[in-house]
Write a structure and sequence with these properties.
Blueprint: H1 2-11, H2 22-31, E1 37-39, H3 48-57, E2 64-68, H4 73-81, E3 86-89, H5 94-111, E4 116-119, E5 122-125, E6 130-133, E7 136-137, H6 142-153, E8 159-160, H7 161-168, H8 179-191, E9 200-203, E10 206-209
Parallel strand pairs: 1-2, 2-3
Antiparallel strand pairs: 4-5, 5-6, 6-7, 8-10, 9-10
Helix pairs in contact: 2-3, 6-8
Length: 213
């Protein structure tokens, strides 16, 4: 079923990542940025309700659609109360699944138009274009500002180099470019240099910005 969904949604130009069980899905959803999650209630390892509750407790608010054979009213209520945004029962028609996903994805820009971000003692204001680390004003170029805002939007989550190229530079295939690395390096010099606690971290899948305790 997962492979069928992956192949079918690729026709609609979705890029789909499949997790083999609930434990893998939880780790992936906590460590990467996705536009929407499709979750089966009866997953091996960790069930779908527990998976989504755990993500919501961790403040990961990616839209989630339950796709499951459990079709009672109580099942639907449990799914929505666990943090689900929609609930689709098997068997389903592909066009209905795509319509549900499209509706969830379209909601995101409105939900994500935050004007002010704060991570640790770092603050960014989209309206004034001001960035401060503690009491110090940080002077950034427009592209550095855009890159930092995108990282802060996904605070605590790994953002891949590929996603940064697509969303910040609108590049979809640029082999060998070091533009992300060079901009991250300059951001670190301006934001973390001279501070005891670094906020920008390199991780296995890319970069993550995270406040200190």
């Amino acid at each position: 079923m997962a492979d069928y969904i992956r192949r079918s949604l690729s026709v609609y130009e979705y890029e789909v990542t499949v997790a083999a069980d609930g434990q893998v899905g939880l780790l992936m959803a906590a460590d990467e940025v996705f536009d929407v999650l499709i979750i089966d209630r009866m997953l091996p390892g960790i069930d779908g309700l527990t998976l989504l509750r755990t993500l919501r407790m961790a403040k990961i608010n990616c839209p989630a659609l339950f796709l499951t054979a459990l079709d009672s009213i109580n099942d639907r209520v449990m799914g929505l109360r666990a943090g689900g945004d929609d609930y689709l029962v098997k068997p389903f028609v592909l066009v209905e699944l795509e319509a549900c996903l499209g509706a969830l994805v379209r909601r995101q820009p409105g939900n994500r138009q935050k004007m002010h971000f704060k991570v640790g003692d770092l603050e960014l204001d989209r309206l004034t274009r001001e960035v401060k680390r503690g009491d110090r004003i940080v002077d950034l170029t427009p592209k550095e500002f855009q890159l930092l805002a995108f990282l802060m939007l996904y605070e605590g989550q790994a953002v891949t180099r590929k996603l940064l190229l697509e969303k910040v530079w609108n590049y979809h295939f640029v082999p060998g470019t070091k533009i992300v690395e060079s901009h991250i390096s300059r951001l670190r010099d301006k934001i973390d240099s001279g501070n005891v606690h670094a906020l920008i971290h390199t991780c296995q899948r890319g970069y993550r910005i995270e406040g200190h305790a």
